[in-house]
User: Which sequence fits this backbone?
């Protein structure tokens, strides 16, 4: 081979080596984000491109989700783990304990800068709040889902996943508590809720407001939560293998207390009453709740209304009845806080403090 050809080949090889090392250097500068996949519509598939309801959730694995968004490599050094593969209506306390322990183990590692959790949207707000109360780190944890399966026209999963990874890799998201990112919006775990059964703008934080936006490959925060969360939490699930059973009963005109009595008989340690109005108690239900309290069941008055403060001693004399008022937590969020509170105390005054703290 002539000297000039071998010289050119040597130059080409050197250029490739320099390019690879620059890529490696750039990759090394990117934040390290682990994607924990749990299932849901973001991992769903439908019979056709126009199937946006009636599809199958939890069919696509985490590696496929990542491969479908090659742009992820530009914003973070991403690794994927398939923690579960379920539709999120089937999420249980056991799933939450497994997930919280995995998140805390990963975030304790120096080579993990943030975590994204892909999740079904039906209970996404609940898992987010459970993690908001149990993650022991200020590093970003972002939950993301999709309202349409990946097989659908204008599927929202890929852009939601890209934005969630970008957020989890950002400095701005550090110390903000567990975040929920869908539809270019950033929400706090404590207040975000699913407000529509099927549209891509389903996740909202009514009245108290979302935290910010993700736009042009950048997160923009305009507010922060005022309540304790993540690294400031007093709850520790690291040594727990189970959680106390807490159930919710719904209030409505002509309500029948049979369901409440059955839940108490089945061993519920706590009851969340999703009352009408400001957590009002219909007479038959009030009688049943008082009897439950006498058996040592913790009672929290929440409301089916969804917004506003459930005032202590407002629609019921909580001091006299020894009940707890849920402040602004909706019934499904109040259930999570009471569940964790019961891992530390059965003192109702202490639990009321927790509802004013988190
Ligand atoms: N089965 C629902 C769930 O897994 C699908 C809804 C969704 O993920 O958007 O939460």
Assistant:
């Amino acid at each position: 081979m002539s000297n000039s050809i071998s010289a050119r080949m040597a130059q080409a090889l050197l250029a490739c080596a320099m390019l690879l090392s620059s890529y490696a250097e750039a990759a090394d500068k990117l934040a390290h984000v682990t994607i924990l996949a749990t299932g849901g519509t973001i991992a769903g598939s439908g019979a056709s491109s126009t199937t946006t309801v009636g599809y199958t959730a939890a069919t696509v694995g985490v590696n496929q989700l990542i491969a479908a968004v090659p742009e992820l490599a530009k914003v973070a050094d991403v690794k994927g783990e398939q923690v579960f593969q379920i539709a999120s209506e089937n999420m249980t306390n056991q799933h939450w304990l497994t997930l919280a322990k995995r998140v805390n183990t990963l975030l304790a590692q120096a080579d993990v800068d943030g975590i994204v959790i892909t999740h079904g949207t039906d209970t996404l707000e609940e898992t987010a709040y459970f993690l908001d109360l149990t993650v022991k780190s200020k590093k970003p944890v972002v939950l993301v889902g999709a309202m349409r399966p990946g097989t659908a026209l204008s599927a929202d999963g890929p852009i939601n996943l890209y934005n969630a990874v970008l957020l989890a890799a950002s400095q701005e998201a550090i110390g903000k508590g567990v975040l929920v990112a869908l539809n270019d919006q950033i929400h706090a775990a404590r207040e975000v809720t699913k407000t529509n059964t099927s549209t891509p703008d389903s996740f909202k934080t009514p009245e108290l407001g979302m935290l910010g936006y993700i736009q042009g490959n950048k997160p923009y925060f305009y507010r922060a939560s005022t309540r304790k969360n993540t690294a400031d939490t007093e709850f520790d699930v690291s040594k727990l293998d189970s959680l106390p059973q807490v159930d919710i009963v719904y209030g409505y005109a002509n309500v029948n207390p049979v369901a409440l009595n059955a839940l108490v008989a089945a061993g519920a340690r706590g009851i969340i009453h999703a009352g009408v109005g400001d957590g009002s108690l219909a007479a038959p239900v009030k009688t049943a709740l008082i009897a439950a309290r006498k058996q040592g069941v913790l009672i929290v008055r929440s409301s089916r209304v969804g917004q506003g403060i459930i005032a202590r001693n407002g629609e019921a004399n909580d001091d006299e009845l020894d009940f707890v008022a849920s402040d602004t937590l909706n019934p499904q969020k109040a259930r999570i806080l009471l569940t964790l509170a019961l891992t530390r105390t059965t003192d109702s005054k202490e639990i009321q403090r927790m509802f004013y703290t988190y």
